[in-house]
Amino acid sequence: MGIDVTVERVISLPCEQVAAYAMDWRHDAEWTQGIRTAELTRDADAGGFGVGAEVTRTAYFLGKRIDYVLRVAAYEPPRLLDMVSVAGPMPMHVTYTFAPLPDGGTLARIRVRGDASGLYRPAGPMMRRKVHSSLVKDLQDLQRQVSRRTGG
Question: Coil, strand or helix: which one is 13?
Fold first, then answer.
């Protein structure tokens, strides 16, 4: 049983500002639900953050500590950050997309796909609901954090 959840929100701030903040792993714990720490544990092939980089996150989900590593599969600022898990309790694919709007705002979208088979199968429907509500809150917090930083 797979999980495939997409949430989007219009943020009334410029796309470049929203994407720059959201795509910076150093901000993960400030706006991503459950994340306590995030650390760049492998540089991109070209150095720094980009395709091939790995970020290790420590999170709490449904009351349990989860340590997982996301590898950057695609990085096209300010439009796209696509990451796949390479270590963790279940396979996961996280995609952030940002599109500029004609009024100067941003359409921010997060898609999370995962494999809720095996031990996670019984919790699949509950996990989908929890992931959805967490992503809605993530985008609210993203807007609040970027607004606070830019005075917007």
Answer: coil
> Is 10 strand, coil or helix?
strand
CA–CA separation, 150 vs 68, rounded Å? 31
| pLDDT tens readout for residues 87-135 | 988 889 999 999 999 999 999 999 999 986 654 555 557 778 988 999 9
- DSSP letters of 20-79? HHHT-GGGHHHHSTTEEEEEEEE--TTSSSSTT-EEEEEEEETTEEEEEEEEEEEEETTT
Which pTM value belongs to this model? 0.90
Contacts of residue 131, Cβ cutoff 8 Å, sequence gap at least 6: 3, 5, 112, 114
Of 38, 4, 25, 8, nearest to 131 by C-alpha is: 4
Chain mean pLDDT for the chain: 91
